[in-house]
């Protein structure tokens, strides 16, 4: 699940924190959101799965093929755990190709365990309490499933700007077909598409630097692996529905040419 380009927008606040060591192998970040009011949020593809408690429902939220419009509830706070890219299928217990984009109630996947967690979450009076419940739920899950790590290692390798899927497969000791099978199961798309998503994610991490005039879109395009700025523009529109300049403007409010 993507995150806001800015950590603060009006009354809404988003903060990340380091997960508990017991789940750090599969959890990339813990986060807390203060929504302030009900509103839609653009969720950009990142190849990850977020386990999200919104005060009412515990859900697995994912998008990997394109931008998603997600409705934020009017809640005092929300809490989530972002699973590392490449572990979703193993942790959730189903091929990610079978999970639709958006929010899926976790009770539909984990039945009694998820319902029990929802009951505990409903009693939490603060975000830290709820985060501990989520981390305990994932820790319990890890005792029942095996995360072999091949897709996780593939996702890490595919982040490199010059990564090639044939070399990644060879480095992991599998065929390209085997790599594709594993990555599709654990992420929801094949290695080449995941590589495009991860490259776009690297661009999003540099939006603030462009907005603060520390670099340019052309330089960022070259740094993260795009052929040129036009290539960045095409991929940005395909994966976010907006131009690179529009994403920078959404961060800063200034007019930035594409």
TrEMBL record:
UniProt xrefs under InterPro entries: AraC_XylS_family_regulators, DUF6597, Homeodomain-like_sf, HTH_AraC
Higher taxonomy: Bacteria, Bacillati, Actinomycetota, Actinomycetes, Pseudonocardiales
GO molecular function list: DNA-binding transcription factor activity; sequence-specific DNA binding
Residue ranges occupied by any HTH araC/xylS-type domain in the UniProt entry: 148-250
Name under which the protein is recorded: AraC family transcriptional regulator
SUPFAM superfamilies to which the protein is assigned, alphabetical: Homeodomain-like (SSF46689)
Keyword entries, A-Z: DNA-binding, Transcription, Transcription regulation
Classification via PANTHER family: BLL1074 PROTEIN, HTH-TYPE TRANSCRIPTIONAL ACTIVATOR RHAS-RELATED
């Amino acid at each position: 699940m993507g995150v806001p380009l800015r950590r603060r927008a009006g009354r809404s606040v988003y903060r990340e924190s380091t997960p508990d060591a017991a789940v750090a192998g599969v959890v990339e970040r813990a986060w807390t959101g203060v929504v302030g009011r009900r509103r839609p949020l653009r969720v950009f593809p990142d190849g990850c799965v977020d386990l999200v408690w919104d005060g009412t429902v515990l859900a697995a939220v994912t998008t990997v093929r394109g931008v998603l419009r997600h409705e934020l509830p009017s809640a005092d706070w929300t809490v989530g755990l972002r699973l590392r890219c490449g572990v979703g299928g193993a942790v959730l217990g189903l091929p990610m190709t079978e999970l639709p984009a958006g929010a899926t109630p976790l009770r539909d996947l984990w039945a009694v365990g998820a319902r029990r967690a929802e009951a505990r979450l409903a009693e939490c009076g603060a975000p830290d309490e709820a985060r501990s419940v989520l981390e305990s739920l994932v820790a319990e899950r890890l005792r029942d499933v095996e995360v072999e790590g091949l897709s996780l290692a593939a996702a890490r390798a595919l982040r490199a700007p010059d990564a090639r899927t044939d070399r990644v497969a060879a480095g992991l000791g599998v065929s390209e077909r085997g790599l594709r099978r594993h990555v599709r199961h654990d992420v929801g798309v094949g290695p080449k598409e995941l590589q495009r998503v991860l490259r776009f994610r690297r661009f999003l991490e540099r939006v603030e630097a462009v907005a603060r005039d520390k670099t340019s879109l052309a330089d960022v395009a070259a740094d993260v692996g795009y052929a040129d700025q036009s290539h960045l523009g095409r991929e940005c529109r395909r994966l976010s529905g907006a131009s690179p300049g529009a994403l920078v403007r959404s961060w800063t409010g200034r007019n930035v040419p594409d």
